Structures
1.
Amino acid sequence: MKKVFAVALGILTAIGGFVDIGDLVTNAQVGARFGLSLGWVVIVGVVGICVFAEMSGRVAAVSQRATFDIVRERLGPRMGMANLLASMAVTLLTFVAEIGGVALALQLVSSVNYLLIVPFVAFTVWLILWRAKFSVMENVLGLFGLGLVVFAVALWQLGPDWGDLTHRMMVVDKPGDEQWRTWAYYAVALFGAAMTPYEVFFFSSGGVEERWTTKDLGTMRLNVLVGFPLGGMLSLSIAGCAAVVFGPIDASVDTLGQVGLPVAVALGKVGLAVALIGFVSATMGAACECGLSVGYSIAQYNGWQWGKYVRTDVAARFHVVLLLATLAGAAVLLTKVDPILVTEFSVVFSAVALPLTYFPILVVANDPDYMGKHVNGRLANSLGSVYLILIGVAALAAIPLMIVTRMGA
Amino acid sequence: MAALSGCAPGTPDGDSWRIDAQRAVGDASSAVLTAELALRQHVKGRVFDRYLQTVLVEAEQGVGKAGDAISTRQPPRAERERYQTVTGQIDEAASLVSTARIAVVDRETERYDALADRLAKSADSLQQLEDDLQHPPVAEG
């Protein structure tokens, strides 16, 4: 019974933890402009994150060592440093976006300007990272993040033409008034949002924190293979809601307030209240995961003591990194940079950094010295190789598309 | 020359200006439509006061940004008339969204319906203008 509860809890937190500010904003933007015609990208992205999260989770469970630690050892300091810099830059950018996302969500509740809320959010994030137990942080925020399920209910209540919605998802097409290059830009952004590197680092480092062994492989796989796809369904629901409400009136989505409006249209104040709880929890959870991922990455690369299960005075350098990253995130937002713009940048640069993040994971998961009999099988290798090609294409196309389309204008 | 070009805004060609104008008008129209949608949902009791207020403030900022984006672009000679129309309509929309925001902050709920109607008309005009901007100006005489 305890085991079943652990599995269920893991799956629920994976669902709630999958959606972050990047998914919220990008899916709603895309839904309003393209309907569900880019829904297949979310599906491709979810399969990709499942492939690499399973690999990195397996590495953690088998070796009881975190990804960065092994990447540096297996591929040498130069490749390790490239991996560290690429993923760190994107994770820091995502961290800034998530802190901004929490502040924007709280602004919707309080109508207090988000800039006044940012220091409070940063302090709370730091406090959680410093004091809260890992399991409490993950489970509480993950479960409240499940409030976003309200988007699926809202979509049902809005009563769209399901045949038309699913048909659009199955064919590669775009609305007549959009250009293919803009379509391609948003495809890359959605892919980047679904495969954000911090999710994999957090997942594998969390596995080490929770002392996974090979006995936990089944639970880990269930979390990944059920939790992430259901999280992907939430992303599609957000896009679907925006498509139904904003598509017909030809309005674009540029703010978090707009993202929640379809829920109000469908379910009124109760639905909106649940969505707001989901916004705050999902972005707060993601902020904590990003913050920890920054600390994990640097500490693991440098061979420092790290983790929330280690006493703070023993892992002092790890906690200093967490504090500095949080201060830096708040400082960037206090320059009045638009958090939504930061979010848009973070999902695009996430796509750019994907190869440097995921290639080393594939190499390590293929190494029998580390993995023994749990080395990648044919299926994992085939999927991993196909995804490396997709990731490479997305990484090469991201910046040129961003420039040519002026960020999807 | 470099100093001069650094100080004065360059004149974009007609196509480039029209794309920018379309984008600005489209952004303004989206913000106005969002304000209208939020007001109507509040009238139906589906949105919290503070949520509505935030959405209106964001809509006001959105229209303001759209206006700034196009008003600082030097219009080509052939587009000067439409430049006035574009900036004029965006200014009107901005003023209307501000009026709605003021009513929302002051909780003048009895005005929401009428304001939503006015926002809908403003959004219609902006969408027509956006369509019009897809084509070069009609040559005179």
Note: The mean pLDDT of chain A is 88.
2.
Amino acid sequence: MQWVGNNLGLVAELTLAHIALSIPPIVLGGLLSIPIGWLAFRFPTWRGSVLGVVGVLYTIPSLALFVLLPPLFGFPILSELNVIVALVIYAVAIMVRSVSDGFASIDAGSLRAATAVGYGPWQRFFQVELPLAGPVLLAGLRVVSVSTVSLVTVGVLVGVKSLGYLFTDGFQRRIEAEIVTGIVMTLVVALIFDVLLLALGRALMPWSLLAKSRLRANEAV
Amino acid sequence: MIEFRHVSKDYPGGARAVSDFSLTVPTGTLTVLVGSSGCGKTTLLRMVNRMVEPTSGEVLIDGQHLSERDPVELRRSIGYVMQSGGLLPHKTVIDNIATVSRLCGVSKTESHDRARELMGVVGLDSDLATRYPQQLSGGQQQRVGVARALAMDPNILLMDEPFGAVDPVVRRELQRELLDLQARLNKTVVFVTHDVDEAFLVADEMVILREGAEIVQQGTAEDIITAPADNFVASFIGAAQGNRVLHRSSKDPAVVVDSDGRIQGRLEA
């Protein structure tokens, strides 16, 4: 505990850096996945190949990705951009399937009703399909969030500082408390993100909670 | 006035849902298309708002060919009521009712005022305005569906088995209210159902269909019950089984029974 007391400033600084690195991949990955996942949903013939390719992306080890990306995109290995782009790729890999499942989960009757009352194609997408896919999208985004927050730590291997720094530094200097602090703080950040996402879901989709509680009430009967 | 002129619909794979169908629905009348499931009645209904395009033939509203109208704009000008209400689960009751007027560019305040007024028209308590559809009973959902269809005061109302998903008691109530409403509003209504009793109750004009949307008989309920065109109609409306032919009970002349001796009611003195 003494180590923590003496290094509060460092822990706070690394936690903030960690948060700053985690947000862009979650947001960008989520946004990019929507059109890709929609295509996979909309065109069943592509579905297999799109989900296949995206699934393979997740199996690429992060270190290999850090080495592969710079020549492809023209940024230096030791840069935040390298880490963020790699994490966006992982986010997309997780999220695309959720997006596709989310659109598939929408009741066909609701869509027909939307068309019948006069929603144009774009209006129907943004005002009906996207919100109704929302609960499944949110579930996917929560997985992306946890995964991203934990993967950010690996960035320290290409010199991008995050809570991961506490692992490598603690390991080299054999300070157990430092390693434990890194783990605990990563978990805390992941937890805070998750709570925020849940709160966002509740605020944006109050109806989705009703549907669930009603389902449970029906099961109970 | 809605006119179907020699309309056919083939689905890919060779299934023919509608075959050379012609019908005129006069303005201000309630016409019921009755038939068992798969007879093509819903396909016909969806042609009126271009949810389904005929393979050949034409549908016209007040003399105008529907193929000349923009489908989205057309749908906004026609009220559509479907089974279970077809409400959007992520919108509150009032937002569901206001959907069409919002799509037509009416301001939120004005749409909500009109929606609140319509809740009264269809007999919904104003406390329900902020509820979500899944918090309502089947009958209430159906009333919201009707209110939404009336929001822009359309001339034409399409009703696709609107009361099919509610229990018999509520269904009767909704049917009676539809009649009251129609007496006041005089819409041109096309109503699809497989329930003959419902058709007898609400129809100005009944059109009995069999597979391929072939018209077997067309006329008022009285025409059809007194002179079924053929065995198909007789059997479809239950006349062949004897439960449409009523006589006095031999035990008590004030009691009316069908051909099986099942008690159907009493004669008023």
Note: The radius of gyration of chain A is 21 Å.
